[in-house]
Structure formats: structure tokens, C-alpha cells
Specification:
Blueprint lengths: L10 H8 L3 H15 L4 E11 L28 H13 L4 E6 L6 H16 L3 E5 L5 H10 L3 E3 L9 H4 L5 H13 L3 E3 L2 E3 L5 H13 L6 E6 L16 H14 L4 E4 L8 H9 L4 E4 L2 E2 L2 E2 L3 H11 L2 E2 L3
Parallel strand pairs: 1-2, 1-9, 1-12, 2-3, 3-4, 4-5, 6-7, 7-8, 8-9
Antiparallel strand pairs: 10-11
Bound molecules: iron/sulfur cluster (SF4).
Length: 317
């Protein structure tokens, strides 16, 4: 068991996992999953966009970039009370973690103070807190930690090789630097990527190998399926084979066996059967709620029915 958690996965080893016969891959992932988790439990998070649109970055998948005409309007940072109302509702619906997302390249110090007040308020409601605000300085990371931030989300998005095709306004290294600042401040790391952006299997292996090289592994690993939005450069990307998506989940589970792997964006377009395969492959977290920032997500009612059909229950913190 002790050799399961490794940080030296080579690209070749990760590619070999992707190439396993499907049943062998899923069996291996599910076996490891059961070593470290209760296979009936799924952690439930709710994600709220606290500052929508108008982002100066050029992430090719993102409807919130000011560079693309997607119909998403730029809004101001939400008021504290409105955020806390949403957090109370999320808790009542069964969420254990409340994530706050802002469409910034990086927070201004004034805005960070407002977000810190939100983190404190959400924490006082008895929820785990998570934020995704872009790049952070060491001082900003420390302030968030002091306010009670449990998790910080900052995704690598894709492999280092493909990254330049997706984002040009910040570097891969800048992302790794922010992750290091978050870790140094004592905040747990939520970091994953997006598949279905036209990458090949080598890129998927490159993303997973880079995540698995982080030491310690991110506590939370969101694997997103691209939600194609009209107006973004990836609006016409070829759809990923759902079984390749399941394989990506399984390889994340095998290479980062103690991390919570989140079946993240893209569930709205996935069949219940594909989602069931993702849970079998080791996914053990989802976002609850009808919207993920600006894109649709299954309703909480649909998710409750699906979880009941699969005999899954919410993970308690
Ligand atoms: S993904 Fe984040 S940083 Fe990139 S454009 Fe969208 S809101 Fe901005």
C-alpha cells in the first residue's frame, strides 16, 4: 500500500496506464479507490461565481474572457450578504464545501479583503471554503489562510506542451508558482485540468503526469470535460469519446490514490451511465447546483436521483 503514492510517474508509465484494456484499467482504479476511500461516498461541493465576466485572460475555453463575444456580461464582485445567502442555501442542499470563483487574472488587494470577509463568513456557517481567484502573491495566500480558506483552486488545464495553444496571457510556470504559494501558506490545493480541447492521449498523460509530480499531490483533482461555448475559440472542438474521459479519471485515481478526484464541468452533457463509469473509475466528488460559474450543470434533484440509483451518499467532513 505504501508504494501507491508516488511523485515519480514517468510519461511512459502514465501512457501505459491509458493504454491498458478498459476493464483492467477500471479494476485497478477501483481497487485503489477502495484502499483509500469508502467507495459509496461522494464529496459534494457548490461553486458560486462571485465575480463574473470581463476577465483579461485569453483561456480559449472560457466564456468569461473579455476577448470573446459569448454574451457573458461583466459584473461587479458580489456583496457579502448575497454570497452568504447562497452558502446557506448550498449547505441546506447538502454541500459540504463552498467554492467561490472570480474571473480575475489576479485579485487586487482591495478585492482580496472583500473575499477574505466572504471566506470568514462561509467558514462560520460550518462549510469548508474554497476559492479560485487567479494568480496569488505569497502575502495574498497568507491572508486567505488567516481568513479560514481551506482550499484554493488553480488548474494546470492541460499538458505543458499544449498549454500555449490554450492560453497565452500567463505561463505554465506562473501557474505552478501560484500552486507553490498556496501550498506554502498551508492551504490545501485543488488542481486539475480540462479534456476534450482537441488534445491527444499524450497530452492527457502529460497533464496527469505533471499533476502527479506535485509533492504533495493536490488534495482535490478536478477533471473537467470541455463545455463548448459559442464565441470561444474552442466552440467547435471535436467531442471527446466518453470512454476516454472515463480513462482519464481512472488514470488520475491510480496516480494520485489519496486525492479526491472530482467529476467536474461537463456533467450536463454526460449520460448517467458515463457518470456511473466515472464513479467506478474512482471519481468521488461532484459539484451540486444548476450552474457551474456560467455554464449549465445537472440539477440537484437529478443528482440526488442518480446517487440513489447508484447507492452513493454524500461524504461528510
Ligand atoms: S478561465 Fe479564469 S483566468 Fe481564464 S479567462 Fe476564464 S475567468 Fe479568466
Amino acid at each position: 500500500m505504501s508504494g501507491d503514492v508516488r511523485h515519480d510517474w514517468t510519461r511512459g508509465e502514465v501512457r501505459a496506464l491509458f493504454a491498458l484494456p478498459f476493464n483492467d484499467l477500471i479494476f485497478r482504479a477501483q481497487s485503489l479507490h477502495r484502499t483509500y476511500f469508502d467507495a459509496r461516498e461522494v464529496q459534494i461541493s457548490t461553486l458560486l461565481s462571485i465575480k463574473t465576466g470581463g476577465c483579461p485572460e485569453d483561456c480559449a475555453y472560457c466564456p468569461q474572457s473579455a476577448r470573446y463575444d459569448t454574451g457573458v456580461k461583466a459584473e461587479k464582485l458580489m456583496a457579502l450578504n448575497a454570497v452568504l445567502d447562497e452558502a446557506r442555501a448550498a449547505k441546506a442542499a447538502g454541500a459540504s464545501r463552498f467554492c467561490m470563483g472570480a474571473a480575475w487574472r489576479e485579485p487586487k488587494d482591495r478585492d482580496l479583503d472583500s473575499v477574505c470577509a466572504m471566506v470568514e463568513g462561509v467558514k462560520n456557517l460550518g462549510l469548508e471554503t474554497c476559492a479560485t481567484l487567479g494568480m496569488l502573491t505569497p502575502d495574498q495566500a497568507r491572508k486567505l489562510k488567516t481568513a479560514g480558506l481551506d482550499y484554493y483552486n488553480h488548474n494546470l488545464d492541460t499538458s505543458p506542451e499544449m498549454y500555449g495553444d490554450i492560453i497565452t496571457t500567463r505561463t505554465y510556470q506562473e501557474r505552478l508558482d501560484t500552486l507553490a504559494e498556496v501550498r506554502a501558506a498551508g492551504i490545501s490545493v485543488c488542481c486539475g485540468g480540462i479534456v476534450g480541447m482537441g488534445e491527444d492521449e499524450a497530452d492527457r498523460a502529460g497533464l496527469i503526469a505533471t499533476l502527479a509530480a506535485l509533492d504533495p499531490h493536490p488534495e482535490s483533482v478536478p477533471i473537467n470535460a470541455l463545455v463548448k461555448v459559442a464565441g470561444t475559440p474552442l466552440a467547435d472542438a471535436a467531442a471527446i469519446d466518453p470512454l476516454d474521459f472515463v480513462r482519464t479519471i481512472a488514470v488520475a485515481r491510480i496516480t494520485m490514490p489519496k486525492s479526491v478526484v472530482r467529476l467536474s464541468a461537463g456533467r450536463e452533457e454526460m449520460s448517467d451511465e458515463t457518470q456511473a463509469l466515472c464513479f467506478l473509475a474512482g471519481a468521488n466528488s461532484i459539484f451540486y447546483g444548476p450552474r457551474l460559474l456560467t455554464t449549465p450543470n445537472p440539477t440537484a434533484d437529478h443528482d440526488r436521483v442518480l446517487m440513489a440509483r447508484l447507492g452513493l451518499k454524500p461524504m461528510t467532513v
